[in-house]
Amino acid sequence: MTDQREIVVIRRPCQSGSVDEGLAALLAAYHLQTQAEKGEDVTDVSGLPDRYRAEVLGPGAAFVDDVVLVALSGDTAVGCLVVTAPVGGRSEVKRLWTDPASRGRGIASELVGAALAHARESGVSTVQLSVWKWRSGAIALYERLGFTVTESWDEREQLVCMERVLGADAAP
User: Fold this and answer.
1) Between β-strands 90-98 and 148-149, what pairing exists: parallel, antiparallel or unpaired?
2) What pLDDT, on a 0 to 100 scale, did the predictor assign at position 165?
3) DSSP, residue by residue, 70-103
4) Cβ neighbours around 140 below 10 Å, total
5) pLDDT along the chain (172 residues), means of 10
6) Which residue among 17, 84, 100, 133 is buried most deeply as judged by most CB within 10 Å?
7) Residue 15 in 3-state DSSP?
8) Pairing of strands 67-73, 5-10
9) According to the model, what pLDDT value does residue 17 have?
10) What is the SS3 assignment for 160?
11) The pTM is what?
12) CB 109: neighbour CB atoms within 10 A?
């Protein structure tokens, strides 16, 4: 069977109804899993904090200034990642999520690689991200892709802040 996945860069997630629905489902799964990992009893999107619920219900509005990457397998959205608009030569990678049934296929690596390529093309010199310390698999992935732990810019406990400097000669 041929692997049909490809990375699609969507600048306004609402432009494609089916991709937007898939993106919303991925964001919902991401936020519900994160809340569960924090020990918060949230059973559906209506119980999410307002800002996270807004992302799920309207990703186009929530990420209007950002670039959303969606990994598709055929017509199905199987992964997502948000790259924030550059500020002071920096962008942030947020909301990396791969559907659990699609993990182990390199989708997260492809999404991060596409994010780094986009950041470089946008003139960004540094890409930042934060990840909960219990997500050891994600931390290991980021380290394999050249991110290093840096001083925290966020006051939330158990959050690991990482960054990758983009040099002209470095691969995405």
Assistant:
1) unpaired
2) 96
3) EEEETTEEEEEEEEPPPBTTEEEEEEEEE-GGGT
4) 10
5) 45 54 93 93 93 92 89 86 94 95 90 93 95 94 96 86 81 52
6) 84
7) helix
8) antiparallel
9) 55
10) strand
11) 0.87
12) 13
